[in-house]
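Collaborator request, handled under Task 6.
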Amino acid sequence: MLRLHWGSQPVDRATLLQQLREAISTRDADIDLAETALLLAALDDPSVDLVPYRQHLDLLASDIGATTRHGSGLIECIDALRAVVYTTHGYSGDRRSYDDIQNANLIRVIDRRCGIPVSLGIICIHAWRVQGWAAAGIRSPAHFLIQVSTTGELAILDPFHQARQLDDSNLHERFTAQEGSTENAMNGVVPVSNREILLRLQNNIRIRARQRDDTALALRTTESMLVLAKDAPVFRLEIAALKAKAGEIKAAMSDIETLLEGQGAEELHEQAELLQATLKGRLN
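Structure tokens returned to the collaborator:
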């Protein structure tokens, strides 16, 4: 996996965004999930030294390695993950302030030892993968879940509830409650890419920033999502609208022009042109 390295010297936001582009430029399977999540968190405060957070993530992994052995069974490995992350290091799901934006910022999750399913899931996936075992996020209609395996056995864990293992009845209840399907619950278990996990993490911040009318935070977060989504036009249009709301009219116009000149996304052109016309009126 590609691992980014930078020292304790603070860097600016533009440099961090470039490092984000580099981090996700590799194959999805080679993206260092936790490292990239730290980089996303640093975009909110570029002065933060990431070295201690990287060392903490390494410690979680080494502690799990110290309590397992070659050939350990799946249940033994899950027990080690649960003991190290949730008992020894004190992580938990934040039930009291679930919607706190800090819960989707990996730096603050590590500081506070609490988070939401996707941020805790990233920590668990990282600690698991370092052992050489396979782990992935699951496309769940409700809380984010993770799928782990060692020697071919599979298990689905709930990172918000101390990596509790879900059986078929748990999965059936979760998936049918949201989707109304009566098929075998395991048929609904679909692994998601590292990039999708990171987008889900950022989307939690984006939604909450918009809910509390924090335009600056919504803009910063959507800009990072544009990078993660490889310049998806839908995020370009949203960025233009947020810049317009912030009074950055010329910058918003530039984003709209970039969208309209690009290939595809014709379904967004009507909205983009309407916003463009409105902004032209404000410039006159």
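The cover message to the collaborator said: "The longest helix spans residues 194-211. Residues 38 and 134 are 21 Å apart (CA to CA). Please let us know whether this matches your experimental observations."
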